[in-house]
Amino acid sequence: MDLTQLLAFTMQNKASDLHLSPANPAIIRVHGKLRRIKSDAHLSSDDIRSMLYSVMTEQQRADFEKDMELDFAISFGEKARFRVNAFTTRNGCAAVFRTIPSEIPSFEDLDLPEVMRRFAELDKGLVLVCGATGSGKSTTISALVNHINQTMDKHIITIEDPVEFVHHSKRSLVNHREVGRDTTSFSRALKSALREDPDVILVGELRDYETMSLALTAAETGHLVLASLHANTAPKAIDRILDVFPAGDKPMARTMLSSSLQGVVAQNLLPKADGGGRVGAFEILVGTSAVRNLIRENQIPQIYSMIQTGLRYGMTTMEDYVTDLVDNGIVTKETARAVLSQVVEEGTTEVDSNSIRAGGGKPQTRAPEEISTAPSAAKPAHSSAPPQDSGGGSYSF
């Protein structure tokens, strides 16, 4: 198969990722499980390099040769886009293509909690969406931006590496900026954004001290800042932000965060009990006055108890959310216990995974299998704007 056929095959099987690795057949990830493409021969490093160079620009090829790794994105007809990471291994050239559907998901598509609609309709403050890689953060943030774009008269600036979902201006004016293409860094773009009359700023990832400091400043000065972060729980996300500040700046950082934080969404994608894809599970923290006081006073470990008792504000713990999924037969007890064990490993609190009530069907325990289907053709095109955290409109990959 050539790259066009492999990408078509990836889409036909609703896979979230396509893996190209030397001395292996092409592999796709479907509902979180890796599946080898049976009909495909083992790929060589030269095969993979040729595929990549066919969709890279001349500058991208030069950057890849120089840095031995590269993030970029391509469009695949009108159907989807792919976020691509090309990298070098001991055995040669390799790559991962992550699917980004062209259709932007709505709140209803993702069955997001209602409080997240309120987050999107805020005039100012900081809203964090956190989770592990592949947990659907980009899909969720895109739904927030889509809601704003469709229902409000705002100027939205997105700063991403790379751009994933492409939002065309509707009621709002949307400007996308891609790090490495339209700007040299997140921090530089954020500085500029503050002079570009924005209402909403999307920061693809809070990575460093300068970016976090600027994001807090933007949120404090009357802008709505939507940002993603790698953390498995809401309290841990707050810790991650504060940890990047030097000791002497931490009191100021706590004050800025306490005054600007509107909400934190921590999420996971869990396999459904019926094998029909994956479903989002959420922990939600709302920035109430009590939560802000705890941040200001550096009492972060106590925030979890606020989430437990904050139902009337729209808060929920991951434990409660996952338990509801089990009770409704959407995920199995085994799946629930696995995700709650990860929450415990994050060190936020101790949850009793044995208290999960019975529900759902049998867990999926199939061994990795091979897939063989004939793909249809469609051409990938150069694009510096890319795909996303893995996701489809309904989180069903």
Automatic annotation (TrEMBL):
Record region (Disordered): 346-397
Biased composition (Low complexity): 372-387
SMART domains according to UniProt: AAA
Name of the protein in its database record: Type IV pili twitching motility protein PilT
Similarity comment: Belongs to the GSP E family.
Listed GO MF terms: ATP binding; ATP hydrolysis activity
Pfam families (UniProt xref): T2SSE (PF00437)
Residue ranges annotated for the Bacterial type II secretion system protein E domain, each copy included: 194-208
Lineage summary: Bacteria, Pseudomonadati, Bdellovibrionota, Bdellovibrionia, Bdellovibrionales
Organism per entry: Micavibrio aeruginosavorus
